[in-house]
Design a protein that fits this description.
86 residues, mainly alpha
Length: 86
């Protein structure tokens, strides 16, 4: 698991940059529970971006499996059609 794929992903970069806006927003807020809710929401967005990068390899592998299955089904249909003709 390489950290480079996380640091170069635009979703993760955007979420990290979002911390600047969140910090600016919370500076002007009263020091109560709402400030913590804003930071929790920002952290949830960052976690979703990181999880998306982590699952990207699984998604690509699944897509390859679906393409292979589709190819096998087309070949089987073609062989069945040839068998019925001949």
């Amino acid at each position: 698991m390489s950290i480079g794929k996380y640091l170069t992903n635009m979703g993760v970069i955007g979420a990290l940059i979002g911390a600047i806006g969140t910090a600016r927003q919370t500076q002007q807020m009263p020091k109560d529970w709402r400030r913590y809710i804003v930071w929790v929401i920002w952290a949830a967005g960052l976690a979703l971006a990181i999880a998306g990068v982590a699952k990207q390899a699984d998604d690509e592998r699944h897509e390859e499996e679906l393409q292979e299955l589709d190819r096998q089904q087309r070949e089987a249909a073609k062989a069945l059609k040839a068998q019925r003709k001949g």
